[in-house]
Amino acid sequence: MEQNSLPKIAFAGTKVSRLICGCNPITGFSHFSEEKDWEFKKYYNFANTHKLIEECFQNGINTMQLRGDKFYLRLMLDHRERGGKMNFILVTANELRDLKANIREIKQYGPLAVYYHGTYVDNAWHEGKIDEIGDFVKFMKDNSIFVGIGSHMPEVIEYAEEKNWETDFYMCCLYNLARKTKTIQGLNATGVEEKFIDNDRDSMTEMIRKIKKTCLAFKILGAGRKCENKETVKEAFEYAFKRIKPIDAVVVGMFQKDKNQVRENAEIVRGI
User: Fold this and answer.
1) pTM, whole model, 2 decimals?
2) What is the DSSP letter of 258?
């Protein structure tokens, strides 16, 4: 049972907490190092992931973002079979050969919403194939999915709005990690790793405020780069909530191995 309430927004016909738990730590993707990736993977087995979900709900976080692959679909199903009430927003598993089949399978599990993976959206932009993403948005909408797209680039969000894509929401990274075509591992075409530049935050949050639709801001902590201490974490949260709209929320990955980041983050948001 959800114990400590957090502010909520209207989203996909329900009320979701303005702090949403992200999935990168669960999937073992740190945006930091291979060593940190492996630490994530070893910790977040099925049991510890279920503990994370329960801790989130106990602290007022009633929504989680997960990957739409078979492993996490089963995790979501298992949570519900246990009587869990967490809401799930799923991202497409673009590494699969048949993406439309993936979307159809995702729908069977009844997620709250689905969005097209931001790395692949941004790669399509660089490759001049961005309108293909609009076709997939229409496909998901035709299948009665509350649909969004992810992006690390403000201009992509602006393009989708100008083209009147049938998006219901946007996943907006505060850092532009897609200046060039890159892999899902975070390397661009020349093998250069991602750069986290603080000025990017101003550009993306400016775009977020221009968009009338709900935006979910992610990487607000710079994939751990704003986590030197509690004060830097709080400052990052304060920046995000000051710069996004009242109808928006933030998505934050949480690693529970060494301390209760769920409780700390929820307390910060509640205080703000």
Assistant:
1) 0.93
2) S
